[in-house]
Design goal:
Blueprint: E1 2-5, H1 7-14, H2 18-33, E2 37-41, H3 42-55, H4 58-68, E3 73-75, H5 79-87, H6 93-104, E4 109-111, E5 124-126, H7 128-135
Parallel strand pairs: 1-2, 1-4, 2-3, 4-5
Helix pairs in contact: 1-2, 1-3, 2-7, 3-4, 5-6
């Protein structure tokens, strides 16, 4: 199984958002021992760099991204994903791009806390808690 991690859950981890931290840590731990792989997109990585640079520093952003690359793979965003997002029913352009990156890379699931933003997706959209409830066993 291949699961796509949206920027919000990765930022929960990297910024230590206590309310959500344990779920994402557990997902990462399970990915090391279970038969699923974690992915995100180059757009998510760029957004994370921008946000962490503003919140902390550029050096912190690079350090955090290096850590991410230790447990997930990065999918490139291309013209196909951008055009698909433009032509889709997604109201959030960026979420549309993430969705089509996941679809075009044969993902099974998108893990996000912004479920409503992915209501037009054909993929299974789960929060970290829902993912753990379904795949932890």
């Amino acid at each position: 199984m291949k699961a796509f991690l949206d920027s919000d859950v990765l930022l929960d981890l990297l910024l230590g958002r206590e309310e959500y931290l344990e779920d994402i840590k557990w997902i990462l731990e399970l990915s090391l021992t279970k038969k699923y792989k974690l992915y995100t997109s180059s757009l998510v990585i760029a957004n994370i760099h921008y946000l962490i640079s503003k919140a902390l520093s550029t050096q912190h952003a690079f350090e955090k991204i290096e850590k991410l690359l230790g447990f997930l793979r990065v999918i490139s965003v291309g013209e196909k994903e951008i055009k698909s997002s433009i032509e889709s029913k997604f109201t959030d352009f960026e979420d549309g791009i993430q969705n089509f990156c996941a679809i075009n890379s044969d993902m099974n699931i998108i893990i996000t806390r912004n479920i409503r933003d992915f209501k037009h997706s054909k993929l299974s959209i789960l929060t970290p808690k829902e993912f753990l409830a379904k795949y932890e066993e």
